[in-house]
């Protein structure tokens, strides 16, 4: 498989455990399956090479074998199945009364909102949306997987093509100990690095898909 960023050899798999070498009679067929996780957008080329021995029956010299080879190329373009737009907002943390801290040691709290749009040609079902925070932060999901008292569990979102759903997470800096604003990991331009968003879904045919965003950051702090 030749992807935009790499070339990967793929192993063959079949419905039954068989060797790569098989004998086929007249009219028989052989099926093999290759699996590849699409991780890059753009042009992909699947190259398939087949080597086989053909037995020819000659009345004078008897049966003889000839080795033949052919190669086929299958080209396709991988497009994004899901579009993700994120927004991070900071809001103050309510601390206990009579507790005063220097501004630099107050724990930070953020709200992460993400809009997920189905860019595929068919419907998809979101199975999981999770936020993996950096070590100095904790997170709380406020989506369909959240446990609400005296309510039934909500179904996973079902998105038709171009449908949009919104998810949100509360992100809070760990308080206590030595965790302070200054110790939160920051990027080169001074933005606080919060973590990554991971999304898993299935198509109407049951094919799984997954996406992990880059590191999500706050706005540049003054």
Query: Average pLDDT, to the nearest integer?
Result: 82
Q: Report the biggest beta sheet as strand number plus sense, adding barrel if it closes.
A: 5 strands, antiparallel
**CA-CA gap between termini:** 47 Å
Sequence of secondary-structure elements: EEEEEEEEEEE
Please tell me what the overall shape is: elongated
Poorly predicted runs are none
What is the rounded Rg?
Answer: 27 Å
How many individual helices? 0
Strand content: 35-45%
Total strands: 11
Structural class label:
mainly beta
Outline the structure in words.
This protein has about 220 residues and is mostly beta strands. It is built from no helices and eleven strands. Strands 5, 7, 9, 10 and 11 form a five-stranded antiparallel sheet that branches. Strands 3-4-8-6 form a four-stranded antiparallel sheet, with no helix packed on it. It is elongated. The chain starts with about 40 loop residues before the first strand and ends in a 5-residue tail after the last strand. The mean pLDDT is about 80.
Question: Any key phrases for this structure?
Answer:
single chain, 222 residues, mainly beta, 5-stranded antiparallel β-sheet, 4-stranded antiparallel β-sheet, 0% helix, elongated
Layout of strands and helices, then pairs:
Elements: E1 42-58, E2 62-78, E3 82-90, E4 109-118, E5 124-133, E6 137-141, E7 158-159, E8 164-173, E9 193-203, E10 208-212, E11 216-217
Summed up:
The protein is an all-beta fold. It has strands at 42-58, 62-78, 82-90, 109-118, 124-133, 137-141, 158-159, 164-173, 193-203, 208-212, 216-217.
